TrEMBL record:
This is Holo-[acyl-carrier-protein] synthase. It is found in: Cytoplasm. It catalyses: apo-[ACP] + CoA = holo-[ACP] + adenosine 3',5'-bisphosphate + H(+). One of its GO terms (biological process) is fatty acid biosynthetic process. The gene is acpS. It holds the Pfam family ACPS. SUPFAM superfamilies: 4'-phosphopantetheinyl transferase. Mg(2+) binds at D8, E58. GO terms for cellular component: cytoplasm. Its cofactor is Mg(2+). Transfers the 4'-phosphopantetheine moiety from coenzyme A to a Ser of acyl-carrier-protein. It comes from Enterococcus ureasiticus.
Length: 121
């Protein structure tokens, strides 16, 4: 049973400026394991990666029904499967979490679907 759906879109140029001006933002958004992946990437991919992860965390908070604030950016972690697909590896949700991230030259967009266990009498 679907418990929540969230979507968010982020401008890459905004994230690129933030990376240049506020390196503390990167550590606020990314968990230690996400940051380790981020550091291995060339600059252009770092911008896409950070924008995608930020969009995922915003989308998760929308699917959760609270928005960022009740759920912190560090409460959700998106790493990757062996094939490179994004995977939510940490969150407050106890069911399945499905994630999709996409990029254009100017935007990153992410969608989250939260699936819960249906309890039948």
């Amino acid at each position: 049973m679907i418990k929540g759906i969230g979507i968010d879109m982020v401008e890459l140029s905004r994230i690129e400026k933030i990376i240049g001006n506020k390196s503390s933002f990167v550590k606020r958004v990314l968990t230690d394991d996400e940051h380790a992946l981020f550091q291995k990437l060339p600059h252009k991919r770092q911008v896409e990666f950070l924008a995608g992860r930020f969009a995922c965390k915003e989308a998760f908070s929308k699917a959760w029904g609270t928005g960022i604030g009740s759920i912190g950016l560090q409460d959700v972690e998106i790493l990757k499967e062996e094939n490179g697909a994004p995977k939510v590896t940490k969150s407050p949700h106890e069911g399945n979490v499905f994630v999709s991230i996409s990029h254009t030259d100017t935007f990153a967009v992410a969608q989250i679907i939260l699936e819960g266990v249906e309890i039948r009498d």
